[in-house]
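PROTEIN DATA CARD
Card holder: Protein translocase subunit SecY
Chain length: 443
Origin: Pelodictyon phaeoclathratiforme
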Amino acid sequence: MKLNESIRNINKIPELRQRILYTLLLLFVYRLGSHITIPGVDAAAVSGASQTHSNDLFGLFDLFVGGAFARASIFSLGIMPYISASIIVQLLGAVTPYFQKLQKEGEDGRQKISQMTRYGTVLIAVLQAWGVSVSLASPASFGTAIVPDPGIFFTITVVVLLTASTVFVMWLGEKITERGIGNGISLIIMIGILARFPQALVAEFRSVSLGSKNWVIEIIILAMMAAIVAFVVILTVGTRRVPVQHAKRVVGRKVYGGSTQYIPMRINTAGVMPIIFAQSIMFLPGTFLSFFPENEVMQSIAKLLAYDSWWYALMFGTMIVFFTYFYTAIAFNPKEVADTMRRQGGFIPGVRPGKSTADFIDNILTRITLPGAISLAIIAILPTFLTKFANVTPGFAQFFGGTSLLIIVGVGLDTLQQVESHLLMRHYDGFMKSGKTRGRQSR
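Structure generated from the sequence above:
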């Protein structure tokens, strides 16, 4: 009843309804383009060859682009070059004075940074498209020839087409963010992951029906999956509230302040960005190694860094912990929070304003970020353990935990919160809570 009422309320708000329809339309365009095969590629041959690579980095990359890579689609690169460029620009913003200056220039600085990110996206897309063209043209990559007529013309076609498609997907994401609902880049990644869920679910239950698994064990696995999803939701929305007291001020005949508010410090302040950043970095070795499909040394390194290996899990988990702290430091600045509190006449009970308040907030942030970062890392590498010890199919294991589940939960909650904000602004109940809006505002 509550869900049906919320859906009816969405239909009553023309602006929100148009935003949702616009978002769905652009996501449909993205999914439609992911089924268009690159010219010069035998689609049937690449589909059959991709089945043998479902448990390596090829299959993991294909998961993020919704099967477009396995189909040799024009959207094979998806939005990952843009993510990689964003990581590089944000890293430069942390260590380069020029980018730090741009970050402080307001809207003009953000526009310049966005433009540099777009240029970086084109450069990375060209390099990755070149690697894709080499892999497609080499029979050693797939065990069979999937390009009937490889040559320089095929390479140029693939590079130009995949680069232009990546720019188009980036434009779709920016338009969804601007005129739709939710973060467009994150939604494109999420919809690509969700597109593989029905196929993974069917493959898992097919293995049970064939007798390779016990139904009782499968039910236990599904129960564990529900528990992990609940834990991820709790981890995503969990907060530590820091009390802030405002001193009373008399302005004319009115008294201001004297109330207690809270600073909501999330356990996972960085959200899904550390997962996306770390995953994009882990794709880079595979892209580099794709240029040497016939080199035995390079291919042995590729097997060592396969996403179901222990080395990959260790490196991936370490990167997630690092990027969690890195992105938290960018998203939440204790010194700015302390300065804002002091200007507004607020203070934390028992802590002196200024530097002491900044150090107090930074200490709390460091403590609550550590368990959040470790939890993210454990959940991200969980599919590796499930595939090796629980005999879960690789495709289904990605939804049991790992990057896929974290992105789906994080992006889904963020999108629902944006929808709810539109509903609450117009005095309707949202998805996340029950009760009347007026009563929540009064409390």
